[in-house]
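ok here's tRNA(Ile)-lysidine synthase:
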Amino acid sequence: MHSLYNDILIQELKKYRDKKILVAFSGGKDSLMLLDFINKQKESLNIYAGACHINHGLRHTAKRDEDFCRLYCIKNNIDFYTYNISEELKKDNSGGIEASARKYRYKFLLHTVKENNYDFLFTGHTYSDDIESFFVDLYTGASLFTLGGIMYENDKIIRPMLNITTEMVNEYIIKNNLEPVFDETNNDIKYVRNRIRHKLIPVLYDCGNEFEKSVIKLQKESNRLNEYLYKKVKHVILKQDSIVILKRYSFIELEDIEKEYLLGKIFSLFFRVSKNILHAALSFLNNDDSKRLDLPNGYMIEQSYHSIKIFKKILISDYVYNKPAGISLFKTDDFQIEFFNELKDKTIIIRNRNKGDKFGRKKLKDLFIDKQVELFERDRAVIIEENNVIIWAEYISKNNNIIFKRYGI
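and the structure:
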């Protein structure tokens, strides 16, 4: 076995001795080398490995790839999992098919990790992929602080082959008589990454490989800048999970480069970030109005009284529920309402607000504004209606016959 890639991977795998590893297995040469190498070293390192294949259903050879992966795992006594995400991609590709495929691929991979008690997910990203990604990011308008390259570790996702080159992979495949599948779309230069791989990078290598050192140096400088800027802006982040909330007035006090960095870092959690998206969002936040701006992948950014929020549009979808007479406790995933006395015995409508709603003699919108209720909360606010008359509104009302409790957001 080639001593260099052997030494590199052995040193990487030693970090995960006694762990249970799931390998993202496409059947291509990179993931095949990774899985094959781990499988051959599993006893000496006491590593347990399984494999998960995601069938995107986008190519006529997708079933061939899935069958190859399954057969390889059967022959090598490796636990195998597979998911077909073609239906998910048909329903949701608003951010582009590549972004949606990545989103659902990792969703199902990480689901498999959790459901089957794996410690980590390994992917086959290589040194060559990292170099390519630098130029893809550069081409698509990335900022200086987002040129740091592919992360080695991101929560449970580990990329142990980032010091392995394509040449090393090819040598391993040949020496071990492996026959990986080939994704025909890898030669299709309508994709940016493929144009860079087949058109740009060969020209750079014709001039020597010194450019690699320049790329790595710039990636390291980008990461240093990233770490420095995060320390400067982290106090602005109030909440970061399914919805990100920033302190609006703290954000306003940031320098322009700090604002751009913070938005770029947050946006990158949800979609591929470009200069155009960042500049549109920064321009949007430059005035005092309470308003919203659409973002890729079904996200929105909202500026309101005291906060800036980034969230999925679905979180402010309309809803209408009917509480039948005789029911005292009404529950959803987001809230519960307990009704007492005569309200328990009445049919009640529970919904969010409609345009033109009135509560008493005043417009509900004006009451929310008077209370400085933020846009996001207004659109999610629970409205209780009886006989087409609003009798209670979240953030506005007090009623001894209604006890309301909201969960989570």
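+1. Residues 316 and 376 are 7 Å apart (CA to CA).
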